[in-house]
Amino acid sequence: MKRLHLHIAVEDLNRSIGFYSTLFGAEPAVVKPDYAKWMLDDPRVNLAISQRGRLAGIDHVGVQADSAAELAEIANRLKAAGKTTLDQEATTCCYAKSDKSWVVDPSGVRWETFHTLGEATRYGEDEPRDTPAPAATAGACCG
């Protein structure tokens, strides 16, 4: 079953952890010095926040797949919609290793579809900021 993913850049990580913990009635599943993540079932969402020197606000949205097959299905739908995807294998971001497909929607919103393979000990690379293209880095982020 897929899970909606939201990644929000925040100005004050500790204050934001307090806010989202109260909002969802749950503590984050992952807390790092610059990052926190909730894996909620009600609503079914993977909410990540980070304090990494970006403008505060929605950084990107996405869909987390439970399997490689689900990820391939979503990526194929994006391609069928006429979008160019940036596909990445075994990339490290947000303290996790994942396979991913990135796309930018018609309004310029960055979408990430991903299947998490396991945890990582470092944050990893920043995700692509522009329209996915083959020239983009393979170490892109997030999930």
What do these coordinates show?
With 143 residues, the chain is of the alpha+beta class. The chain has a single domain (3-119), classed as Roll (2,3-Dihydroxybiphenyl 1,2-Dioxygenase, domain 1), CATH 3.10.180.10. 17% of the residues lie in helices and 42% in strands. The protein has helices at 13-24, 68-80, and strands at residues 3-9, 30-32, 35-41, 44-50, 57-65, 86-93, 96-104, 110-119. The protein has an eight-stranded mixed beta sheet with strand order 2-3-4-1-5-8-7-6, covered by helices on one side. Strand 2 and strand 3 (35-41) form a beta hairpin. The radius of gyration is 14 Å and the shape is globular. Residues 129-140 have low confidence and may be disordered.
Derived structural class: alpha+beta
**Strand arrangement across the biggest beta sheet:** 2-3-4-1-5-8-7-6
Please indicate the percent range of residues in DSSP E strands (runs of 2 or more). Answer: 35-45%
* Structural shape: globular
Rg, Cα atoms, Å: 14 Å
Number of helices: 2
- Series of H and E elements: EHEEEEHEEE
Tell me the count of domains.
1
Which sheet architecture does the biggest sheet show? 8 strands, mixed
Distance between the termini: 16 Å
DSSP summary, beta strand count: 8
The CATH architecture designation is Roll
CATH class wording: Alpha Beta
Layout of secondary structure:
Elements lengths: L2 E7 L3 H12 L5 E3 L2 E7 L2 E7 L6 E9 L2 H13 L5 E8 L2 E9 L5 E10 L24
